[in-house]
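Subject: mismatched residue count in predicted assembly?

I count 767 residues in my input, but I want to confirm that the predicted structure covers every chain. Input:
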Amino acid sequence: MSKKEIMLGNAAIARGAWEAGVKVSSAYPGTPSTEISENIVNYKEIYAEWAPNEAVAAEVAIGASLAGTRALASMKLVGLNVASDAMYTAAYIGVNGGLVVVVADDPGLYSSQNEQDTRLVARSAHIPVLEPSDSQEAKDFTKLAYEISEKYDTPVFLRTTTRLAHSQGTVELCDRVEIEDKPYERDVAHNVMMPGNAKKRHIFVEQRENQMKKDACDFEINRVEMGDTKIGFITSGIAYQYVKEVCPEASVLKLGMVYPLPEQLIKDFAAKVDRLIIFEELEPFFETEIKSWGIKCEGKELFTLQGEYSANMLREKILGQKVEVKPSQVTARPPILCPGCPHRSTFYVLKKLGIHASGDIGCYTLGAVAPLSVVDTTVCMGASIAVLHGMEKAKGSEWTKNWVAVIGDSTFMHTGIISLENMAYNQSKGTVIIMDNSTTGMTGHQDHAATGKTLDGTVVPAISIYKVCKALGIENVVEVNAFDTAELERVVKEETSRDALSVIIACAPCALLKGQKFPNKVKAFPDKCKKCGACLRPGCPAVTKTEDGKIKIDETMCNGCGLCASLCKFEALEKYEV
Amino acid sequence: MTKNIMIVGVGGQGTLLTSRILGGLMEDAGYDVKISEVHGMAQRGGSVVTFVRYGEKVAEPIVEEGQADVLIAFERLEALRYAHFLKKDGVLIVNDQRIDPMPVVTGAATYPENIIEDLKKQYTVYDIDAMDEAKKLGNSRVFNNIVLGMAARHMDFTKDQWLAVIEKKVPPKTIEINKEAFLAGYGRE
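Triage response: the counts match. Full output below for your records.
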């Protein structure tokens, strides 16, 4: 009997890559794709790395493919925007060894800044897309993607969603197949995309797509499950599971390849059912194309463009069952910075000084919400610095005197570094605070070039953020301990009032970082509490009030950073050694 | 028949480990299992929910409103937030602990009073101050296995099956204390 194991969707993708004989994997962490790399690194036959960003990751995978080996890059939806420059042209070049790029979409916005649909990018880039619907398929489709990639001379996207990536299901394990490296031959017409060559490759890209459209009608992963013909569903991915949950008797065309679409297969299926329902999360991608062929179907008039789908949605819209949902008007519990988080300390100082922050992507996005309320804008990875620069150029440096950009160390290394180059080059006078907590925090503590460790834990020379800033020609670069609020306050005042570009590196490791020790805790002495509320201002979840309004510390939560104690004038809070 | 279990709590309380214990248990028992988790930003002290479904063949990985057989809540307010996911004859196991969400700390909202009493009017509820029990055992971090022990009374697996999977899923150094915690919950009526 073959071995079975319960696996996270992302772990199954990693397993699939290993079984498929992949040799190189590159990625930048991003929820919900991060665990692919964290699992792949356990397979010693694969070289796996964290790249500084998704463009680099995609290019590394392209290089490995051109050299003749099977290669993988993985990223979240918005990471594909960063990598798309490479991918649009990789579609023209094609592959030598198979090339698969996993892109994880996030319907429901669990951990992203928008709800874009990767299928639309794929269509304009002319890259085929496979979409699994459970962990088993996540593994199987990853392997199949390599066969398709090599057969059709194309990169392939494997599209997942948060629900699939972070769900576990049973997976049957197979052995790794060692794939012989494809010979490398210099082929300028194929691999050098200058206009003369690209024009010819564009013709090939179109032919390839038309061929796949035809062949896809016979792909086993595009599966017709004929049942009751009163209703037929066309669906894919996790949405398929909701259909099976609610309408197990209905006819279903389950698309495993979601681009390009198997036109004839869809037309034949549509002709056999009385009512055709398109059940797809996010954009009306199937629906628009199917309607363009003159086929009558229902989709987005029944189901939303936003968020995740559900079985209850089908129960209500298709079966006409009223699902009794008591809308629980319960006090919200939004995510917050952890106890002992160094960002809290930095934000506390900024808030005290009445400073606005142009924000970025990371835990510190939470600096936008009460009680910190410092961050005014968040766009995309690395944007904080350029947004601040744009503001200054629009309104002048007087206007941005009480502004800073805040960006984490990992995000700075990702794309922030380029924007800082722009500030230096174009003589900006703004202040940038790099909140250096020595890790990629929000995605679950991944290393990067400035931490001095690679994906597999190898210790390497850490790139010094301080020296990088200096090398850009920035004169005012100051490193401060993020928990030293007095010094941080002095430095922020000094640098924001300066008529020149400054960088403040506020350092202190993430409270959740592995190996991080907490020698202290804070104890409350409610008798001394005057209920002034000073200690509550930084919004630490370990600091709350008793019923009579006096201060209380949850010592199981407290990490002993001492920020609250430093704000108490009445000695009602005291830091002590554990 | 597919069974639906939900584990809800506050990010950082250990819902992921509990769901993995449950998943391992059902896998060992030969069921088809699907688990759906929350990673990323919500884990930072936000409201988190994990779904575990098992049966002969499981389709969707999530549990929806009105479908849960067992709801395990590690915190009172989270029990209230997700109680309507329970089936009419579902069982709610709640850890009687209060963790104030930020809007309550800042005074923008209030923490509801009498949550457990009110839930008892509508649902079958078993409550325990597992944090207090865990401190008595000498390790507050094992509170979730006390709650799990209580929930185990309402599920179709033997005590030995539970103990075997706990042994496999918790860090080796903490096996004994976690088993002890489980049994403390399991012994409660």
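Chain A is about 35% helix and 20% strand. Marking this ticket as 'not a bug'.
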